[in-house]
Amino acid sequence: MRNNTLLTDLYQLTMAQGYFEKEKCEEAVFDLFYRRNPCGHGYSIFAGLNQVIEFIENINYSEEDLEYLAEQGFNKGFLDYLRDFEFEGDITAVPEGSVVFPHEPLIKVKAPVLQAQLLETSLLNIVNHQSLIATKAARIATAAKDRSVLEFGLRRSHGPDAGYYGARAAVIGGCEGTSNVLAGKDFGVKISGTHAHSWVMTFDTELEAFRTYARNFPNSCILLVDTYDTLESGVPNAIKVFEELQEKGIDPDLYGIRLDSGDLAYLSKEARKMLDEAGFEDAVIAASSSLDEEIITSLDMQDDEIDVFGVGTKLITSSSCPAFGAVYKLSSYAGRPKIKISDNVEKITNPGDKNLLRIYENKDRKIIADMMTLQEESFSEKEELELFDPRDTWKTTSLASESYKIRRMHEQIYSRGEMVYDLPEVKEIKEYCQSEKETLWEEYKRLINPHIMKVNLSHNLYNLKQKLLQKNGVKA
Amino acid sequence: MRNNTLLTDLYQLTMAQGYFEKEKCEEAVFDLFYRRNPCGHGYSIFAGLNQVIEFIENINYSEEDLEYLAEQGFNKGFLDYLRDFEFEGDITAVPEGSVVFPHEPLIKVKAPVLQAQLLETSLLNIVNHQSLIATKAARIATAAKDRSVLEFGLRRSHGPDAGYYGARAAVIGGCEGTSNVLAGKDFGVKISGTHAHSWVMTFDTELEAFRTYARNFPNSCILLVDTYDTLESGVPNAIKVFEELQEKGIDPDLYGIRLDSGDLAYLSKEARKMLDEAGFEDAVIAASSSLDEEIITSLDMQDDEIDVFGVGTKLITSSSCPAFGAVYKLSSYAGRPKIKISDNVEKITNPGDKNLLRIYENKDRKIIADMMTLQEESFSEKEELELFDPRDTWKTTSLASESYKIRRMHEQIYSRGEMVYDLPEVKEIKEYCQSEKETLWEEYKRLINPHIMKVNLSHNLYNLKQKLLQKNGVKA
Fold first, then answer.
1. Does A2 contact B at CB distance below 8 Å?
2. Mean pLDDT, residues A131-146
3. CATH fit for domain B10-134+322-471, picks 3.40.50.2000, 3.20.140.10, 3.40.50.1000, 3.40.50.880
4. Who is most buried in A99, A409, B39, B231, counting CB within 10 A?
C-alpha cells in the first residue's frame, strides 16, 4: 500500500501546526454529514467505514514525509509531534450499509482539535466516494426490481482505487457481483465475465469463436452475440453451440447470451423467443450498454426479457451526480457548542455534541422519522414522543407510548484512540444494507420525487440552535 | 503499493485462458482511442502514460492471486503461464500532455493476443481517468485566461487514487498547483492552502484567529474571510492583521484573502476596493465555491477581481462529463487487418496497424489536420499532400510542398517487452502540454462549439476500410 498519510489538503497541516503552537489544543467535535441525496434519491447508503478505519490505523508520517514538510516551511517541534502521531480521540459512526438522510452525523469525531482536523480530508474522500457509488447502486437495483445487477465499470472509473472500492460499494448498495477480479478476491464478492468482441474477431467465424469458448468454459458459458449481427448470426450460432453441449451430455450451471448494443428491449424479446423455441428456456439473457436506472426502467416498461444487467460507466462514475458532497464541520470546541452560519439556510450546521436516533413503527419496523438530540438527552419508549418539523415548527406528530421503537444509530468505533469495533465482512454489510432498505416504505424508495424523510431535532437541540443563531445576529 | 495485477475484468482472464488453450496465440494489434471529447471540448489532453508504464512494469501474479484464480476454475497450465508472465510486445503512444482528437490511436499495443488482452482494463482505467481530468483542467484554465487555477478537490474525488492521480492530471492540463500534499511531494508540483472556517470558529474572535494564523505563517498568509460576514467582519479584520504585519516590518511573499461563499463577483470587487484603500494593492484575492469553467467565465464577464481560483468538486470529478470513454479495439490479428462494424457509424473502427501523423502549417506551427495512415506508408514534406474528409470524401484540401511539416505522433514505449522510454517529470509534461495547446488556433480552444479538428485517413487506409466494410456486407 502507498502510504496515504500525506494524502490530505495542505491547510489541514497548516491549521494543525497552528493548533500545535497555541498554548492549548482543546477537544473538538466534528460531524461528517451531507446535505442532499444524490440524483434526487430518497435516501443514501453510508459506505466506506472499514476504509476509514484502515486509514486511521495506518497513519504514519515517514521520515521522507517529514523532510518534505520541513522543505515546505513547517517547524521542527510540530514535525516531531507528527513523527509520533497517534490518534487519541473517540469516533462513533452509523454502521456501513445504513440507510441515511441529509444533515445526519454519519461519523462523529471527538478529539483534540489538531487530531480531528488531520482526519478531515481522508474521511471525506473515502465516505464521499463509497457512499456515492453505494447509493447509485441502490437506485439501479431498485429499477432492476428482482433482477441481478452486475458492476462492470472498472475501465471507466476514476483510477484504480475508484474501480476497486467502487466495486465494493456497488455490491454493498445492491449489485450481485462485479467483473472486478481484485475486488472479488479481496472483498469476497462474486465475480463474473465472459468474453469481448475481440475474442470473436480473432477467429475466422463467430461459430468457431463460440465453440472454442464453450470448450474452455462449458459450465459458465455466456456468449456475446452482437459482434456481427445479433439475430441473424449471434443468437443462431449460440443456439448451435448450446445444442452441441447438450449432445455431449453437458448441462452447464450457467449458460446464455449477452447483448451489448442495439435495441435491447427488442433484441432481448426476439432472442428469448429463439432460445425458447430451441428448448433453451433456462438460457440467461444478459445485457450491457450504457445502462443506468433510467434505461432499465424504460426497458422494464417495454417488457424486456433481460435477466441480468451489466452496468458500467454510469454506475462507477455515478454519472448523473458524480459527487456526494459530504462535509466535516465543527460542532463543539472546548465543551462549547459551535454553529456555522450561512446566508444559505441549508448550510447552517446543527451545533453541539449530538446523538442520532431512529424511530421505527413498532408494528412493521418501518422508519417513522430520525431525530438528532444532544448527547446528554435520553428518551424512553414508554413515554409519548413528540416530533416536530425543525423548519415548520407548528407541524407536530405525537407517537403514543409503546407504539414505536428507538434505535441509537451510532456505534463506538474508537474509544480514547483505541479501535473497539468489529469490522464486518462486505457480505455482511451487503445483507445489512438489504435489511436497511426494507425499513423504508415504498414511497421513500421510488426513483422520482420520493417522500422526504423527516430528520427532526429534539426540543433541546432546536432551542440551542436558535440561541446560537440569535447570538450570531441571525434572525430565526 | 497494492498489487494491481488482478485489478482487471474477469473476462480478460477467461479470454486469456482461451487463447492459451488455442493451438496458436497470434500477434494482435490493439488501438486505445476515444470517440468524443468530453464536455463538447475541441480537443483532449492525453494523460496517464507514466502510470500505464508503472502498471506494466509491476505485473506480477502472486501465489495468492493464482490460488484465487484456481478457486475460480482456471486451469493449472494457464496459471503456470501467469506465474511467469512477462510482457513481450511493442507499445507506442503519443507523449503525455499531447493535444489529441477523437478516433486517434493514443496507445498502440502489438503483442501476442493473450498478452495484449490482459493489459486492456488497466490501460483504459488509467488513461480514461487522467485524460478526463487533464482535459477538464484545460477547459477551466482556458476560462481563467491568465489567472491561476489551483486544484482543491481531494475530498470529493472518487477515492484516494482519484485525488492523487487527479491532482497530477489537473496540473498537467493547466492547474498551477494543488492542495494535495502527497501529490505535491510525489509529483514535484506546487502545493497551497491556508485555513478553514473551523480554524476561525475555535477562537473567541475572528481577529484573534487571523492574528494567530499570521503569526504562524507570516510569509504566506491568505485569510479566509467569510466565516461570519465577509465585508463587515472578514475583510476589515484581515486588513487589521496586514497592518499589524506591516508595523512589525514583515513583508510577506504572499498575503491576501480567500472568499468561499456568496456573490464572488460582487464580494471580490468590494474587497479589492477595501484592500486598495488600505494600501494593500498587492494583496491577493483567492476564491473557491463550486467553481468550474462556466462560473469562471461568468465571473470574468462581471469584471471580478479574483486573482486565484480554487477549483474542487467540479474539476476532480469532471462533473459535467464524468467519463472519458476511451476504448481498446482489435485492429489487426495474425497480420490481417480487423474491423469492428456497428449500426452506429461512430463506432466502426479503423482497421490495420496504423500510424498517426500531425500536419502543421510551416509558417506558424499550428495544426492543420491529423492523419491516420497504414504503418508501412511514408510521406514526404517535399511533395504536395492531399487531405480528404473520410465522411464527405469530395471535400479535399491540397497542401503545397514545403508548406507544411509532418510529425509522427507516436513514440516507442516498449520494444519486444523492454521499456525503452525516458519517463518525463510532471513539470516537463505540464510544459509540453502548454506548448501543445499553443499549436491550436483559438477557434479550436473556445469552450462552446469549437471548430472540429480534421482527423483524416490516408487514401490507403480509407480504401482498406471500405474493402473490409464491403466484405462484411456493410454498404459504404
1. yes
2. 97
3. 3.20.140.10
4. A99
CATH no., domain A193-289: 3.20.20.70
The answer, for A21 touching chain B at a CB cutoff of 8 Å, is: yes
**Chain B contact set for A165 (CB, 8 A):** 159
Are the Cβ atoms of B195 and A162 closer than 8 angstroms? no
Bigger pLDDT: B393 or A191? Answer: A191
Q: How far is CA A266 from CA A365, B26, B433, in A?
A: 41, 37, 46
* pLDDT score of B474: 60
- What is the reported pLDDT for A93? 98
pLDDT at residue B202 in the model: 95
pLDDT of residue B25: 84
| pLDDT tens digits, A209-245 | 999 999 999 989 999 999 999 999 999 999 999 999 9
Residues on chain A touching B198 (C-beta within 8 angstroms) = 15, 28, 30, 113, 117, 329-330
Say whether A31 sits in a helix, a strand or coil: strand
Q: Using CB atoms, which residue from B152, B155, B342 is nearest to A128?
A: B155
Please compute, for residue A17, the number of CA atoms within 13 A of its CA located in the half-sphere on the CB side.
23
φ and ψ of B466, to 5 deg: -60, -45
- A-chain CB neighbours of B335 within 8 Å are none
B74 and A CB contact within 8 Å:
no
Q: Quick: pLDDT tens for A259-280.
A: 999 999 999 999 999 999 999 9
Query: Cβ of A202 and B155 within 8 Å?
Result: no
Assess whether the region B10-134+322-471 and the region B193-289 belong to the same CATH fold: no
Write the pLDDT tens digit of every residue in B186-204: 999 999 998 999 999 999 9
Question: In angstroms, what CA-CA distances link B212 with A399, B162, B207, B223, B253?
Answer: 50, 34, 9, 11, 18
Contact between chains at A157 and B156 (C-beta distance less than 8 A): no
B30 in reach of chain A (CB within 8 A): yes
* pLDDT tens-digit map of A104-129: 999 999 999 999 999 999 999 999 99
Listed residue (A371, A369, A380, A376) closest to A353, CA to CA: A376
Read off the amino acid at residue B245.
L
Say whether A121 and B322 touch across the interface (CB within 8 A): no
B190-191/B177-178 β-pairing: parallel
Whether chain B has a CB inside 8 Å of the CB on A18: the answer is yes
Average pLDDT over residues A26-50: 97
Please name the amino acid found at residue A179. Answer: S
pLDDT at residue A475, as a whole number: 47
Residues 427-456 of B with CB under 8 A from A: none
B288: pLDDT strictly greater than 60? yes
Residues ≥6 apart with Cβ < 8 Å to A174: A134, A137, A138, A140, A141, A142, A149, A433, A434
State residue B31's pLDDT score.
Answer: 98
Interface of A with B in 138-197 (CB under 8 A): 152, 154-166, 179-185, 191-197
Map out the domains of chain A as residue ranges. 10-134+322-471, 193-289
Q: Which three cell numbers stand for residue A8?
A: 490530505
B15 CB-near residues (< 8 Å, 6+ apart): A195, A196, A198, A199, B114, B117
pLDDT at B272: 98
pLDDT of residue B475 exceeding 50:
no
C-alpha cell at B291: 467553481
Give the mutation candidate from B6, B9, B71, B129 for the A interface (greatest A CB count, under 10 A): B9
Residue in B156, B215, B219 nearest the CB of A323: B156
